Amino acid sequence: MSQTINAGHSNAPLLSGRTQIVGVIGWPIEHSVSPPMHNAAFRALGLDWCYVPFPVPPERVPEALAGVRALGLRGINATVPHKQALLSLVDELTPEAQAIGAANTVIVRGERLIGHNTDARGFLRALGEAGFRPEGCAALVLGAGGAARAVVYGLATVGARVTILNRTEDRALALAAAFAGVHPQASITGGPLEPTTLARMAEGAQLIVNTTPLGMWPRVECSPWPEGVEFPSGAMLYDLIYNPRETLLMRRARAAGAPAVDGLGMLVHQGAEAFELWTGVDAPVDVMRAACVAALGGE
Ligand code: NAP
To answer: What is the pTM of this model?
Structure first.
């Protein structure tokens, strides 16, 4: 059987001995939109760089990091479930990665691997892009998992008053305690994600952030917000979910007259931060966003 070679494809990267390689490790990795996002950015700026997805099972992450060094990669992203594992495998951690307890970006500096976390800054950049100033705001965060750690840390660094509500209350309380000293003006409390507490805490909230996966494709009929609780019209909703682009919770917020923003901005800006750390060049954010939207099958 003959094989079709698309030699004239203008988007194909032309690799050479000078091409700088970065990539992402995850398990699974085939649905990651990071490769199209970063490769579109390299092409747009004419950078001789290439971003490669690497499927790495959890038990092989130490070998993969040794490979990053041995193969001369410039850096690597880590996604689910490897962000915590990197903590003990890099030579140095930024204070942010240490505080959040996860590293999603590694930079190679000579023989040393430096672990960063770009999720918190990516989240704050996305809020800024949406026109929301989080400094000192009253924020309600739903969920207390890995993404919530970055979100709550980011909000704490700008002196926000944060309430974390989670199905497993103990995790909310532990997260609140972990970031208690991040900023003198910040206050962080935790509680259970149940209707009475939610209704009480939603009153006066300026920002509501959904960090739970409820409403994510394919279970788009789910929402962390119970039917009987009114959504506050004076708050902005930031839903970390980006597939679908409009969740049931976002529809609920918009029906109540509240602005609602999906998680694509955070995805793009955490990537933009990593891009800038590796290349030292401002990331072409609009190009990256368009590549993500296309990769997600949207318009
Ligand atoms: P995770 O660590 O597994 O945490 C999930 C959180 O959601 C936990 O607090 C969990 O509560 C809660 N939860 C799960 N199922 C629930 C249910 N049925 N009812 C109530 N609460 C429930 O996941 P994660 O890594 O934080 O990711 C969470 C979401 O954020 C995913 O949709 C992910 O795609 C998205 N995300 C987006 C970005 C972005 O750039 N936009 C970045 C990271 C993550 P318990 O503690 O009680 O289990």
So the answer is: 0.94
